[in-house]
Specification:
Chain lengths: 425, 412
């Protein structure tokens, strides 16, 4: 690993222990120069990370989350808590001193997971288990499984029986989110989760800690929203692939470190932002579950289009909605999960997601939608025909990209995207 | 491969279950009533197989089961055509074949009974899977009718008090929903009676299944798949109670008369997961040829498996808790406990697991269950990769080879 990468993967806390304050270290110069400068600088300056842009740090972490998490755990002793779902009540994990860590599946071939899961199971579930069984996730102190879909539900059992992490908590959230009794139940579940976490991590989650956490999460989510807004206004201020790294790192990093990086990034972007964008690419919304393929953003750009907003679990669903402050904190956390736009594994109304998608297209001045979800994902596959119908009725061009373990070849992707972009007026 | 014993026609006739004709008659009447409900001023509700149908019966609503319909489509070998139609409509081939076939039927009015009667409203209980939620959302949009969801939280360890409170609260919401849809109040005395009849039917159904513990078994799991229909569709009625009494008595008589369903029954097997509807006869013959009898299964016993949790004098408050605890809504360790009990009760020599592409909550985890059963009980197991309705996922030669090899190890 290069010195540069090693440096970045060292958590800020380590730098702080050496009396180094990160904010002052972040270079505000245009990002393109940093790599070149780094290469010619003496190593001791590199060690200070003096010319490292927030975005570069984020990218390195996003590309190698496991090394980051291992180092973080080693340096700070903070428990890293794995999860697979945007309904994971992260606010409570943070309040318990933990680092919520989103799992994205594996980059390796599936071998060990084959002994536990059939081939008709999505690559996220199979890949997640693969990494757990291979020992690639040994930095995890435990895993939290919110109720998501049938596959994740069974993965939780298989994981608990085979993966061997110190703790395992199921958070069996309600599936319908539109009734009073579901709200009451969700609050009960969150309270139970709070006490399970307290036991697992041997801490006490005080109201004060919880309020601090809510405050932090509101700030993080607001900033992510601002960055998304800026890209929506001027896609040239940050590339979609880079924004992918930002959102991914946001689900992985120590959230205090993240805040500093996001603040710095936001300020950088503000400076670059043009009121009237020069970008003439077609504006596209990406809709689906998890996206772990930054390549599709560049392939799309090469075809003359830009993802300018999304409807993804690893996207807007992660940061939209603020937690109200003032009332009971657990209830407030529950209310955000109850009012935020649902994922297809949850029920709001029978047309909520369709209406939302059409509205998004209009609000974001988009001219097309790309559906992208994993093969064998039941909830998304069931919603697809109706969402497509809603878009067709609204005259919005759309295509489906069903992703298996690997993306289609570059050439195939390019052809599909070019054909799609041609469909758009 | 075992030689097929020579059996003459009168022996074959003797082995036939006589109640079958009664069952067919009841199901025909039921579907005629359902299809003519509107003419008779009755409301029709679609409901999931694990849903609390008793409340519908008490409200004089005719319950219709898309899953039972799916099974009929599979058994009539009409699955592929309908599944392909659904795929044309944009539904992925990887989705549940019951759902695909049924969704296609709504549009084409095809299938063995020309489609199901249109629902006035929908009742979806997710104790069997997350798929039904999505499937019923599709139906709610297509027919533009109200949808009630009974959300039964999955049980990873034990059912929490919060969860119990939640499902009981929903039971009252369900009653409110029905009262609104039907424009009349729930008659709680009637409900009480229906609840009792429901429990009675479950007990009788369990007694029917228990007769297969006898050696040789008077019936097989394949028979159970067929006779299950009433416990799904008419639970809570006197008809189901009367029928299962008749069937139980017939089974007991067969035991007295020494009638075995599989002649020369030598190997007793337990089946896991839904049937392969379009190949029940083929599979039944295949195992019989090896003198093997599928004496029990985890699927048909799932309904009665919860009956001890229902207080028949307080069905309203205990029913939903029991329904939340069905075999498929609990964790693998809980499932293993049930499997062990069944293995012991039926005294089986092996376990056959249908890895069913259509049913993830039932099938994912089977590999672990298989390992645990082999480790803890030293019981031979076989996994068959197939699908309950979509024949395209059934490879006859591969499955035949696997069954033969499995039987050879049992015989060794």
């Amino acid at each position: 690993m290069s010195v540069e990468r090693t440096l970045v993967l060292l958590p800020l806390t380590v730098l702080r222990m050496q009396g180094i304050h990160f904010k002052r270290l972040i270079n505000r110069k245009p990002p393109c120069k940093t790599n070149r400068i780094n290469r010619i600088l003496p190593i001791h300056l590199l060690m200070l990370g003096q010319f490292m842009e927030a975005l570069d740090k984020i990218k390195i972490i996003s590309e190698d989350p496991y090394s980051y998490a291992s180092n973080l755990k080693q340096a700070t002793g903070k428990p890293v808590v794995g999860n697979f779902c945007s309904y994971t009540p992260e606010e409570l994990i943070y309040a318990a001193g933990g680092v919520p860590f989103r799992l994205f599946g594996t980059k390796e071939d599936i071998s060990l997971a084959d002994a536990h899961l059939q081939a008709y199971c999505c690559s996220l579930v199979r890949g997640g288990l693969e990494d757990a069984l291979k020992g690639n996730l040994s930095f995890l102190s435990g895993t939290v499984f919110p109720h998501t879909c049938d596959s994740i539900q069974r993965l939780s059992d298989i994981w608990r029986l085979n993966a061997g992490f110190p703790f395992h908590i199921d958070v069996v959230l309600p599936v319908k989110l539109d009734t009073q009794s579901a709200r009451t139940y969700m609050i009960d579940v969150l309270n139970a989760f709070k006490s399970d976490l307290e036991t697992a991590l041997n801490v006490s989650i005080t109201d004060k800690k919880l309020l601090q956490s809510i405050n932090l999460y509101n700030r993080l989510r607001r900033i992510l929203g601002e960055i998304y807004e800026m890209r929506s206004i001027d896609p040239d201020c940050i590339s979609a692939a880079d924004l992918y790294h930002v959102i991914k790192a946001s689900m992985i990093m120590d959230r205090d470190e993240l805040l500093e990086l996001l603040l710095s990034l936001r300020d950088d972007l503000k400076k670059n932002l043009k009121e009237k964008t020069l970008n003439t690419n077609k504006r596209i919304i990406l809709s689906g579950g998890i996206c772990n393929h930054p390549d599709i953003y560049t392939a799309l750009e090469d075809s003359g289009a830009e993802v300018i907003w999304d409807d993804l679990c690893t996207g807007t669903r992660y940061f939209e909605g603020e937690i109200e402050q003032g009332g009971d904190p657990i209830e407030a956390v529950a209310d955000r999960y109850l009012t935020r736009m649902v994922c297809p594994a949850k029920h709001l109304t029978v047309t909520a997601r369709g209406e939302n998608l059409v509205r998004l297209v209009k609000d974001r001045n988009a001219s097309g939608v790309i559906f992208m979800f994993l093969k064998f994902c039941d909830p998304h596959s069931f919603d697809y025909p109706y969402l497509k119908q809603f878009l067709d009725d609204a005259g919005v061009p759309n295509i489906l990209l069903e992703v298996e373990e690997q993306l289609p070849s570059d050439a195939q992707l390019k052809t599909r995207f070019e054909t799609f972009v041609d469909m758009i007026d | 491969m075992a030689g097929q014993p020579i059996i003459n026609d009168s022996e074959k006739e003797r082995r036939k279950i006589k109640s079958v004709s009664k069952m067919k008659e009841i199901m025909t009447t039921y579907y005629i009533e359902a299809k003519t409900a509107r003419e008779n001023g009755k409301k029709v509700a679609w409901i999931t197989s694990g849903g609390p149908v008793e409340f519908l019966i008490a409200m004089d609503v005719i319950p219709v089961y898309p899953e039972n319909h799916g099974a009929m489509i599979g058994a009539s070998k009409m699955g592929v055509e309908l599944c392909e139609k659904a795929e044309e409509m944009g539904y992925s081939r990887d989705l549940c074949s019951y759902a695909r076939a049924d969704i296609a039927c709504s549009v084409t009015n095809g299938g063995p009974i020309g489609g199901l009667p249109k629902p006035d409203f929908l009742v979806c209980c997710n104790n069997i899977c997350g798929t039904v939620l999505k499937w019923y959302e599709v139906a709610a949009r297509y027919y533009n009718v109200p949808l009630f969801i009974l959300d039964t939280p999955f049980i990873h360890t034990t059912m929490s008090e919060a969860s119990k409170k939640y499902v009981i609260a929903q039971t009252y919401e369900y009653i409110d929903f029905l009262e609104k849809q039907c424009g009349k109040k729930m008659d709680f005395d009637r409900m009480h009676q229906v609840g009792k009849l429901g429990v009675q039917a479950l007990r009788l159904w369990q007694e029917v299944l228990d007769t297969a513990a006898h050696k040789p078994a008077p019936m097989t799991a394949f028979d159970a798949f067929f006779h299950l229909a009433l416990i799904v569709t008419l639970r809570g009625t006197q008809i189901a109670v009367d029928y299962y009494k008749q069937l139980r008595d017939e089974m007991n008589q067969r035991i007295k008369d020494k009638i075995a369903m599989v002649p020369n029954e030598k190997y007793r097997l337990l089946w896991d997961n839904l049937p392969v509807w379009y190949r029940t006869k083929w599979l039944s013959d295949k195992f019989s040829a090896h003198n093997a009898c599928l004496v029990g299964d985890t699927y048909t016993s799932a309904w009665s498996g919860i009956m001890d949790l229902i207080d028949e004098d307080n069905f309203i408050e205990t029913g939903a808790v029991a329904y939340s605890s069905v075999y498929i809504n609990v964790s693998l360790d809980n499932m293993l406990e049930t499997l062990k009990k069944l293995i012991k009760k039926y005294d089986v020599d092996g376990l056959v697991m249908h890895s069913n592409r259509s049913c993830k909550p039932y099938s994912l985890g089977q590999y672990d269950l298989q390992k645990l059963v082999m480790k803890e009980l030293k019981l031979p197991t076989l996994i068959i990769e197939a699908d309950m309705v979509d024949e395209r996922s059934f490879s006859e030669s591969q499955i035949e080879t696997r069954i033969d090899a499995f039987m050879e190890t049992l015989k060794a």
